[in-house]
Amino acid sequence: MALDGYIFWDMSLVFMNSSGLIGLYLTFTIIMTVRKNGNFTPWSARNTLWCILAAEHARSFFIILTRRNKKKQGMNIRLSKCILKKGSFNRKLEYKRKVDERMNEEIKILFSETFDGPKGNRSLFTESKPGSGLFGTLDSLRAEEASILVGGVTIAAHTDHTRYHLWACNQTLEGKKLEFNWDESWEIAAVGEHEWKRIMKDLHLEYRKMTDFINAKQELSSSEVTVVLGALAHAAYHLGAIRQLTKSVK
């Protein structure tokens, strides 16, 4: 009974401190062996049970350590993913910035060709020779020629309408909300030399305003891009119309 008492006491310690059923299984095996053989001393039984208990504690410590390492690895992985996401986000921002800068440069080139004409003998959409832009085409016309009706409209009317549209776009870019009278922009028909020069001067002024606005911006907002591209497309259309009318008045 003394032997069994020692064994059961140590068995309970093993069971309470173990993290699984291994200790309980080994303890039960030792008790059955002691009962069967009878020559297993209490001290050797206790030593065996304490070895089992130490092994169980070592196993529990290893499990805890492994879980902590996995948790730490998981945190490191999440941190690495955050760093990668941040790096990817920064690369996207850098790419967008470069695209925006390139788009601004292309808009400047197209505006320059539309109004000032192509540089040299190369062009993107106008006739590849100097004076093919809007200013070069208008400079070749006298007020009398700009006042000739062709198909119910004059070059002077096209020119003043283009100026008015460019002015309206500049007002919009400045944040002003105005009501625009587009019919009024077509009211001019015949012009004298003085009025013709004034229209062209005002057209130059509005063009410089818009190019200064584009040059001052590192990147244009989506609404600004819409206004600027609208002004560009509108001016390019009327450039084509004026160049066609020029063939009839010359």
Task: Give the tally of structural domains.
Answer: 2
Shape: elongated
The succession of helices and strands, N to C, reads: HHHHHHHH
Counted beta strands: 0
* Mean pLDDT across residues: 77
Separation, N- and C-terminal Cα atoms: 132 Å
Low-confidence regions: 1-20
Structural class: mainly alpha
Helix content: over 70%
What does the radius of gyration come to? 45 Å
Question: Which sheet architecture does the biggest sheet show?
Answer: none
Summed up, the helix count is: 8
Strand content: under 5%
Strand and helix map with partners:
Layout: H1 2-17, H2 22-37, H3 42-115, H4 134-139, H5 143-146, H6 155-173, H7 193-216, H8 222-249
Helix pairs in contact: 1-2, 1-3, 2-3, 3-7, 3-8, 6-7, 6-8
List its salient traits.
250 residues; mainly alpha; 8 helices; 75% helix; disordered N terminus; transmembrane; membrane; transmembrane helix
Structure overview:
Keywords: Membrane, Transmembrane, Transmembrane helix. The chain crosses the membrane at residues 12-35. This is DinB-like domain-containing protein. This protein has 250 residues and is mostly helical. It has two domains: 2-79; 116-249. Helices cover 75% and strands 0% of the residues. The chain has eight helices and no strands. The protein has helices at residues 2-17, 22-37, 42-115, 134-139, 143-146, 155-173, 193-216, 222-249. It is elongated, with a radius of gyration of 45 Å.
